[in-house]
UniProtKB/TrEMBL annotation:
Protein name: Probable nicotinate-nucleotide adenylyltransferase
CDD domains named among the record's database cross-references: NMNAT
Source organism (scientific name): Chloracidobacterium validum
HAMAP family: NaMN_adenylyltr
Primary role: Catalyzes the reversible adenylation of nicotinate mononucleotide (NaMN) to nicotinic acid adenine dinucleotide (NaAD).
Matching Gene3D superfamilies: HUPs
An annotated Gene Ontology molecular function: nicotinate-nucleotide adenylyltransferase activity
Biased composition (Basic residues): 1-10
Pfam families: CTP_transf_like (PF01467)
The organism's place on the tree of life at top rank: Bacteria
Protein's UniProt keywords contain GTP-binding: no
Domain Cytidyltransferase-like: 31-219
The keyword Transcription regulation belongs to this UniProt entry's keyword annotation: no
């Protein structure tokens, strides 16, 4: 024996990778306002299509209390419209119906409504307000529309008879990088996600919407014709139980 001892080898610990924190995806919330007098398959199918493309975590239907652009006396009670919207969306897992405008008739403007949701969901949430092309064309006349543009993304639903103008004009008015054209088969989750990093955007879409008119539904009810192909069964039942639109009159 030499008396020399071998130094013990240092204990080693297995190499393990430290967990890499992953960013929590920002919540995406779709906001669909409307009179919904009554809500019909046109609203529902379009909302479902947009929810799939924009990958919403939540989809809020927002019945208006007093549409600023319509004759309030000819609009059915907000509570009936709210009830029909709830019934129509029961089968949509991500759908909720908000009473924010019904509870605050003194604040009928969209900028106010979006500000309420921004406060509720926080600054990190992606809020998408959906509107038709006809509404978008008149946007510069809306109350505090510039505040609205800076508060949420807009999804504009174009149709052949309701165009929004050429892209050059829109880019000049709203900013080159703000307007994203998803028409012509360019709508996809990837196309949306790749444009969400900076600022608020205006997404132009041409997703298919059923050609259904609330006016035609009300007329059909007043004439005793079936509306089964226009509205969900529970909504049809509600309309008949409460006598809405019968004889051309609304129930307030």
């Amino acid at each position: 024996m030499t008396g020399r001892t071998q130094k013990p080898k240092p204990r080693t610990t297995p190499l393990t990778s430290a967990p890499v924190p992953t960013a929590t995806p920002r919540r995406r919330v779709g906001l669909l306002g409307g009179t919904f007098d009554p809500i019909h398959y046109g609203h529902l199918r379009l909302a479902e299509s947009l929810a799939a493309i924009f990958n919403f975590n939540e989809l809020l239907f927002i019945p208006t209390y007093s549409p600023p652009h319509k004759d309030f006396d000819r609009v059915t009670s907000a509570y009936h419209r709210y009830a029909m919207t709830v019934l129509a969306t029961l089968q949509m897992d991500i759908a909720r119906v908000s009473m924010v405008e019904i509870f605050a008739p003194e604040r009928p403007y969209t900028a106010d409504t979006v500000a309420t949701f921004r406060k509720s969901y926080g600054p990190d949430a992606h809020l998408f307000f959906m509107m038709g092309a006809d509404s978008f064309v008149s946007l510069p006349k809306w109350e505090r529309y510039e505040t609205l543009l800076d508060s949420c993304h807009l999804i504009v639903m174009t149709r052949p008879k309701y165009e929004v103008g050429d892209l050059a004009t829109l880019a000049e008015r709203y900013g080159t990088r703000r307007v994203i054209d998803l028409r012509g088969g360019r709508a996809s989750q990837q196309a949306v996600t790749s444009n969400l990093d900076a600022g608020m955007h205006v997404f132009l879409t041409d997703l298919f919407a059923l050609d259904v008119s609330a006016t035609d539904i009300r007329q059909a009810v007043s004439e005793g014709r079936s509306i089964a192909r226009f509205v969900p069964p529970l909504v049809e039942r509600y309309i008949h139980v409460y006598g809405l639109y019968s004889n051309g009159h609304h129930t307030r």
